[in-house]
Amino acid sequence: MKRFSLLMVSLLVLAAPAYAQLLEHVGDISAYADDQGSSCNITAPGGGGLVTVFVVQKFSDGGGATGCRFKGTWPAGLSFVAFSTPFVPIGAFNNDLSLGYGFCISTTTSLGSALFINATASPACSYVSIVAADNFANAIATDCSFGEYTVKTGQAIVNPDQSCQCDIPTQPTSWGKVKALYR
Which pLDDT tens digit goes with each residue over 56-70? Predict the structure, then answer.
């Protein structure tokens, strides 16, 4: 019995890191200003113009996905018009949207774009966010073996000012300046 207990504890210790990896292998889904997910600053000054927000799924851990379920939220000043996607959509972007990809994706992929009318200026530093669908605790993605897992989500910043920039350019520096930060 003692040997069996030791074996079970050993299996649990070994299984915990593997389980943690499973939760992260479906990538992350966030809102961006471009279809490649490289800019998260969105300008919405008002005046009745159109604003496009892209929903992009990124994979940094070698995983993949065959579908997802989420919804989008947005600030005052933006009025939702439509969500366009190359994948099979079920539901609506504003409360419960499921997308079936039809195949396993494992590289940065634009899941679609949300189109908004920008009647009035949105508040500075507000967000277009990807969150859990209505009546769900988390946004989910289906991996390439058709298991459902929680997917990390994020947001784009609408009308960023100096206090809330998310697109921060890198600054040239030297190794000596970096070392000085830690002295």
Answer: 999 987 899 999 999
